[in-house]
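FIELD: query
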Amino acid sequence: MWLLIAALPVAYIAVVVARASRNIIFWDEFDTALALILRIDAGAGWREVVKLFFAIDNEHRMVTSRLLYATSYWLTGSINFHVIGAIGNLFLVGTCATLILAVTGWERRIRMGIVLAFLMFQLEHFESFIWSGSSIDHFQVVMLAVLAMAALVRGTKATAGVAVGMGVLATFTLAQGTVVWPLGALLLAHRRRWRELAAWSSCGVVTVAAFLYKFEFNPGDPISEISPHSITQITHYWLNLLGAPLTLGSSTLAAWPGLALLALLGFLGARGMATRQPVALFSAVFAVGALALVALGRAALVGGMVNSRYLVLGALAWALVLFMLLELAVEANPARPFRALAWLLPVLAGFNVAANLKFFPSAESFNEVRDRVATSFQQFGADGKDVTRLRMHPVEKHADVLMKKAEERGVYHLPEFSLPADFPDATRSTHLITYVDELFASARAVTIGGWAMLPGRLSRRGQVYVVLQSEKSRLIFSSTTLQRTDVAAAYKEPRWRYSGFRAVINRTRLPAENFDVGVLIVDEGKAEFVMTANRLELGTPEGRAEHAVLAAQ
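FIELD: result
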């Protein structure tokens, strides 16, 4: 029963991630992934490759993620963000598996698994779950740090070597990975393993020195001088980061649960958890220390806002604190190992559901932006052409230059967003409502967009298709779903929020014919369509030219 309960939030997030997964490059990935791959493909020597791997980017040296991108290129000749995203999410799974296996006894492992499932697998972490550019770093550094703590606790020469390796990798994943070294030293000192402490400290000094070699701050970050004001600002933001998971990302009152977290960690340390549950305690302290470093570097930059990717560390600290509190409850009543967990379960479930409800719109908005800018780029071959003026990369023309090189060299290209479909039993509809407000053709693709819905029915993602009917053929293509809150508001029908669609059809899939444009909806296993007054004229000399002529009525 407990295993099934733990599987519920994990399964929900798996479904959300699978639906949101795209092989679409976005924002930071242009520089951390595509620019790197293009230099390697252009014949960069090993010295330049190493320099690129270790280059400072926004106060981080993201060697491990860059190595993953390069390995993808070396193995396949390209890069696939479906795969990178899956690897990033598996890092969180690896973190949880390490923590569960680090405790002894199946009852204790169930308690650990339950709190991790409900606090880690929820949509506060949507940014990392659905964007590989975040998960590949922010999930990875947590797993590496937890592995280092677990390996140090084991206390053998082999595991000590593993711990050093994980510490090095964590340091060169994100800057907060450097917290592993002082924390590991504290663990070894607590266990009076002085010889290992000396070796560990030496490795830490060398690694951190290598990290700091030619270190420079991002000139765009307003790094404040040390002053009473800046210290207060950093401390307050740190407490907000610690408490924000419990306040569902709100920073208004987050400092109070942040203080509570610190007090609980002190209480648990005083109760001997450093000896009885060292992996849990020191992993929680790592999360707290890592957030202190995040606060130091970002407090002046973000204006108090708590980004989704930073909530991972706070949620992990809270999960481990709850686990250790459960352990104290079981020690008080060992005959009932799940009684305290049963009382806590409704709270965990309520938090998980509330977090999913609160952050689901944010996750949907992220997907919406990514889909809009990518489909727009597919159509125009340039960034920033969508009606919303959103971009794949914030710097103008940057995405254009890199994408052109990537397409020419075959190392990456955007996927096709509209693929052929077949509905032989589709019937003409008498009640389907639709309107085409986007109709454009170029040498690259044809875009057909608008909105469509069925009266009294809920609009769902992936149910709208585009029909192209000529004298010779009927072609049906899938479309990307877009939110149309304006349509839902105009019709006073909230169920039509996802009625928007955009089909971007590769020109090579379209014959030189003149088409009537229709829209098809699949609902409850039935396909029905209507033809609109819009025409796509590709059979004329003008239509076969670089820019097709569209006749919209």
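FIELD: remark
The CA atoms of residues 240 and 252 lie 8 Å apart.
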